[in-house]
Design the sequence.
């Protein structure tokens, strides 16, 4: 795999939690507009890989390059700012702020990046409509269903036009129908905005929304064999 | 799929010519494998012989005569029995994949690689079906879902087998 033309890449990533190795020389790269599924059994290191690539966790060794910059040596404040500005995140649970309405939740990252309230909320409304949940904007996360909440979370992750979207088991808590709808909307929106998507999943039906897949096994990333 | 029963079922709503039957079949069930005219006419001859359909009328034209077929009472009973008879679940006990994995282990080849290669192939097909679902109507979605769920089951088996390869290797080489 060549990182040439990639927007984000990791090389030789090692990470231990205590004595337990989570990553053991993992390599990864993704191009703008590409959806890459990261597969692997539980405990294989796929979430750790995502956290290292997203600058949430600093690897013990190895390199993470985003848009030509080395992330592992960037000061914490700069990494946080970069994450807020350029990255979007969708997780399985608990990502919405319970005290805020859905509209405020989606507008929050835009506000944190300096957008005026009216402009941020207008953009948030557009994304809620795009994710087919425009009827929940005045409700709080506790008042909506899991499927609606996940759509709001996707809207929030994409509203700031991130260049990379990190999705860790984004449909793990949803039933089949809701999961499929969320994946369709997520993949379509990401492709339209040319965002790269790192999609961690253990579900093959979710992985089928990707352009290609890699498998993490024992902390290493395995690419499909050439020619297949 | 029993083409005879399917064509009989399509005739229940009213008599049709062979060409109409083929068109109705292809529209509902023939997305990947449209019916040949020859199949329609050979099936209708058999159904005629068995008294499950009858010729309702014959149109003479410039080309060959066109027969219009109607379902008989015996045909309706036959369709009803077929619909209510459960299909035998596929037991999946003779898996080529399992055979390949065991042979790879017995001959000292890389069984994990074999499983990885198969996963890639399955995912490639699943991507195609997911794309078809995205662009298709409800019928397309249901047909693709049926295939996707089966492929997903295969993939789960691949994962489970990959996780148990060491034990399997010990067992087959014991």
Sequence:
């Amino acid at each position: 795999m060549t990182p040439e033309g990639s927007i984000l890449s990791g090389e030789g990533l090692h990470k231990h939690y205590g004595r337990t190795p989570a990553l053991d020389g993992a390599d990864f790269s993704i191009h703008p507009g590409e959806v890459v599924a990261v597969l692997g059994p539980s405990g294989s290191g796929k979430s750790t890989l995502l956290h290292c690539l997203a600058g949430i966790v600093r690897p013990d060794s190895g390199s993470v390059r985003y848009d030509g910059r080395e992330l592992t040596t960037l000061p914490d404040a700069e990494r946080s700012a970069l994450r807020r500005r350029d990255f979007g995140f969708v997780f399985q649970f608990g990502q919405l702020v319970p005290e805020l309405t859905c509209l405020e939740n989606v507008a929050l990252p835009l506000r944190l990046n300096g957008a005026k309230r009216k402009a941020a909320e207008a953009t948030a409304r557009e994304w809620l409509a795009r994710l087919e949940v425009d009827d929940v904007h005045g409700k709080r996360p506790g008042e909506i269903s899991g499927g609606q909440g996940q759509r709001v979370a996707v809207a929030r992750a994409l509203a700031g036009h991130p260049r990379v979207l990190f999705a860790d088991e984004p449909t793990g808590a949803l039933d089949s129908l809701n999961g499929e709808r969320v994946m369709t909307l997520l993949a379509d929106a990401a492709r339209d905005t040319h965002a790269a998507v790192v999609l961690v999943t253990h579900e093959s039906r979710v992985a089928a929304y990707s352009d290609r897949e890699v498998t993490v096994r024992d902390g290493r990333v395995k690419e499909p064999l050439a020619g297949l | 799929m029993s083409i005879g029963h399917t064509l009989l079922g399509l005739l229940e709503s009213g008599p049709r010519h062979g060409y109409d039957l083929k068109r109705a079949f292809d529209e509902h069930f023939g997305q990947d494998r449209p019916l040949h005219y020859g199949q329609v006419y050979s099936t209708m001859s058999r159904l005629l012989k068995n008294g499950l359909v009858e010729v309702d009328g014959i149109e003479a034209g410039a080309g060959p005569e066109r027969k219009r077929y109607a379902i008989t009472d015996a045909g309706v009973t036959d369709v009803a029995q077929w619909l209510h008879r459960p299909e035998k679940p596929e037991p999946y006990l003779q898996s080529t994949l399992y055979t390949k994995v065991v042979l790879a282990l017995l001959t000292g080849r890389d069984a994990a690689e074999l499983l990885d290669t198969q996963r890639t192939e399955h995912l490639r097909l699943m991507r195609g079906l997911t794309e078809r679902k995205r662009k298709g109507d409800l019928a397309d979605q249901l047909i693709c879902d049926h295939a996707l769920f089966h492929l997903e089951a295969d993939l789960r088996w691949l994962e489970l087998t990959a996780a148990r390869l060491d034990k399997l290797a010990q067992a087959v080489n014991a």
User: Anything to note?
Assistant: Residues 96-173 of chain B form one domain. The helical segments of chain B are 3-11, 18-29, 37-49, 73-84, 96-106, 111-135, 138-163, 165-173.
